[in-house]
Amino acid sequence: VISKFITDWIKDTSSTGYLRSIHNPNKREQDGEKKAILCPDCEQFFGKFENIYKQNLFSSIANYRKPLPDILKISENDKKFMLSLFWRQIINLLHFDKHDQIYEEELIFLEKKADLIKRYIDKSNFSESFDLSVYLIPLHENQVKTLNLPLAATADFYEYERSVFGDLSLLDNFEQVWIMVKLPFHIIVCDLMKNTHEWEVPEILTNDKLLISQIKAVPKMLKNELKKRVFTQPKEAYSNISKEQKLKIENDIKEN
Predict the structure, then answer these.
(1) CA gap 188, 16 in Å, rounded
(2) What is the pLDDT of residues 61-112, one digit of tens each?
């Protein structure tokens, strides 16, 4: 569901050389979650967007050696990669997850949005108005402090730097429908209802660059979601790590 180069980066920059999930913190993982969402042709089609994003935006944002640039240049291929992440999240929900907590009209709505996002990806350029909004928020220390985001579970903003997740936030009566994809050092949010008044962040699809200084404020709901993901859930997961696994983590760090 999340592109492989993301989990590869986490492993390559890890002090242990392994992955661990907050859902099963006592198990070391070699790879991220895998689901057969894409056919081989789609894998190849989406792959070229992934490579460009990896070399362009990702390397500028998720970088321990260089500071975050004041301006991030955003190509059309970068935008298509972001859209492909949102499309995968919807397809995952529609075809792989249980639907016991989602209504039929919400499923129909998401199916239409998935088709719309796929059409945007297939287009050669972004010349039309969009029936959704996309926001990219870097999560370096300065942004976390400036935006007054919740504290992370561990010191040095670790969860903001390294946690990865994808999720859908859907409120009753379609008051809010977001797709959130958290990647190292940043989060990308697709507002399917295009409630632009809630965001003091430049919209990505209609711009070819992002000025970091123009990121002023994010909705309270996003702060609540981040608190759950970077504080509450990790704190619980860390408390459930066994003594044996803690020793393995210490040994892995020494060996690396």
Answers:
(1) 27
(2) 999 999 999 999 999 999 999 999 999 899 888 887 776 677 888 889 999 9
Assign residue 29 a region: left if phi > 0, alpha if psi is -120 to 50, beta otherwise?
beta
Q: Is 32 exposed, middle or buried (0-12, 13-18, 19+ CB in 10 A)?
A: middle
Cβ-based burial of 214 (10 A; exposed 0-12, middle 13-18, buried ≥19): exposed
Rg, Å, the chain Cα set: 18
Cβ–Cβ under 8 Å, residues 136 and 204: yes
The strand pair at 186-191 and 209-211 is best described as unpaired
Beta strands in 51-203 (DSSP E): 71-73, 133-138, 165-170, 177-183, 186-191
pTM of the entire structure?
A: 0.90
Token code pair at residue 124 = 């050669």
Tell me phi and psi for residue 204, to 5 degrees: -85, -45
User: What are 246's two structure tokens?
Assistant: 């803690």
